[in-house]
């Protein structure tokens, strides 16, 4: 079987129950049956998609920008690596799936699931009691785990790392939840409040995991080769390597490649041709440095291009009831990374400079 990404894997499982049939329907969905499986599967896909979208957003101005070609979460791809970046992909996908399932539950999209009312009526703290609709993360966690973790078939250190990062993603959804309250009492005196726990915006989960990506820890596996045929030995080694790493932290096994460079076999395009941002006071520090990060530090130069953008303008309301607009053409300047004319020599020099700074 060729490379398989999470979305196609999930799509496959929906249509054909191919290789996941044993893992899912038999073990996890025996009690609820294929109907429940199908009910959740579409939400799982929506959730995985929103995770990938968030990944693209979070890494829009980074050298590695969450390209489709690297979103292979399945174990069936022989090339798969376990870098800092794939750890983020695992976490944000798992988080997206859990998030969507939880939201669906609160919205009443599933018959067998509703708000978490386990604490309703209890006193939460001074002046407030539990009420309203707390998002049912326990449900989202349980179902998403069954779907997403089942994609990980192996028992090696990579599989263990991927499962750990999936878990970190789900914990991010929980960890960013917050309390929301409503006032009660005589004419809005707010003498008593009812409060519930709700999911943060998914963007916040993305921001949280992006920080975890920056702080990700490299798992130091024992370099001694495991004795041939003794897999129990190897498992002991994996467990040992994981000791002391909090479940909330992202971990990886391999250092990231140089994302400045194109590497077809790994599915990286390099940064040549990428857009970067310049000259807007409003931009964040991160955006303002995008040309440096994507172009200059990769031994490329920045070229300016003027691009015509057509939009609607001068819209007028005509009685009754139409709106007519003109088409206005605006010339905007955009910036892109391009190869230097003089070619290789400069590139190597710049790369060395950049490497020197990093170490
Ligand atoms: C779950 O929510 C997503 C978007 O939030 C929606 O597209 C999907 O249809 C929902 N699933 C169900 C079963 O209603
Ligand atoms: C692409 O990446 C692989 C794996 O890291 C490496 O072995 C190979 O040399 C790279 N190819 C190029 C052209 O950099
Ligand atoms: C800067 O941001 C403010 C508020 O977000 C906005 O009103 C303003 O138009 C922006 N200026 C530019 C040059 O983009």
Automatic annotation (TrEMBL):
Recorded hits in Pfam families, A to Z, give: wnt
Q: Which GO terms describe its cellular component?
A: extracellular space
Q: Which UniProt keywords apply?
A: Developmental protein, Disulfide bond, Extracellular matrix, Glycoprotein, Lipoprotein, Secreted, Signal, Wnt signaling pathway
Q: Name one GO molecular function term.
A: frizzled binding
What InterPro entries would the database entry show? Wnt, Wnt_CS
- Signal sequence segment: 1-23
Q: Subcellular location, in the record's words?
A: Secreted, Extracellular space, Extracellular matrix
Tell me where on the tree of life, at the top rank, the source sits: Eukaryota
SMART domains, per the entry: WNT1 (SM00097)
Q: Which GO terms describe its biological process?
A: canonical Wnt signaling pathway; cell fate commitment; embryonic pattern specification; neural plate regionalization; neuron differentiation
Q: Which family does it belong to?
A: Belongs to the Wnt family.
What job does this protein perform? Answer: Ligand for members of the frizzled family of seven transmembrane receptors.
Protein name (record):
Protein Wnt
């Amino acid at each position: 079987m060729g490379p398989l990404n999470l979305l196609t894997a999930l799509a496959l499982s929906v249509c054909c129950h191919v290789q996941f049939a044993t893992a899912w329907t038999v073990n996890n969905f025996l009690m609820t049956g294929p109907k429940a499986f199908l009910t959740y599967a579409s939400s799982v896909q929506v959730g995985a998609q929103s995770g990938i979208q968030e990944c693209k957003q979070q890494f829009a101005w980074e050298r590695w920008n969450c390209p489709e070609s690297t979103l292979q979460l399945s174990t069936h791809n022989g090339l798969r690596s376990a870098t800092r970046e794939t750890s983020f992909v695992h976490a944000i996908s798992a988080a997206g799936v859990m998030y969507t399932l939880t939201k669906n539950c609160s919205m009443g999209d599933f018959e067998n699931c509703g708000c978490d009312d386990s604490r309703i009526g209890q006193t939460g703290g001074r002046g407030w009691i539990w009420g309203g609709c707390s998002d049912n993360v326990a449900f989202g966690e349980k179902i998403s785990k069954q779907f997403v973790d089942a994609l990980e078939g192996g028992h090696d250190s990579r599989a263990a790392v991927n499962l750990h990062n999936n878990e970190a993603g789900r914990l991010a959804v929980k960890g960013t939840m917050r309390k929301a309250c409503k006032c009660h009492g005589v004419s809005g005196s707010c003498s008593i409040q009812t409060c519930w726990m709700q999911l943060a915006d998914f963007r916040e989960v993305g921001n949280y995991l992006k920080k975890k990506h920056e702080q990700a820890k490299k798992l130091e596996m024992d370099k001694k080769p495991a004795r041939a045929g003794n897999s129990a030995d190897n498992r002991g080694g994996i467990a040992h390597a994981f000791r002391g790493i909090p479940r909330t932290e992202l971990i990886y096994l391999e250092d990231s490649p140089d994302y400045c460079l194109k590497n077809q076999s790994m599915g990286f395009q390099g940064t040549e041709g990428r857009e970067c941002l310049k000259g807007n006071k409003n931009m964040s520090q991160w955006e303002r440095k995008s040309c440096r990060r994507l172009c200059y530090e990769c031994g490329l130069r920045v070229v300016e291009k003027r691009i015509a953008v057509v939009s609607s303008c001068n819209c007028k309301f005509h009685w009754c009831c139409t709106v007519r607009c003109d088409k206005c053409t605006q010339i905007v300047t955009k910036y892109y990374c391009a190869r230097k004319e003089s070619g290789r020599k400069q590139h190597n020099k710049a790369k060395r400079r950049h490497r020197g700074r990093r170490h």
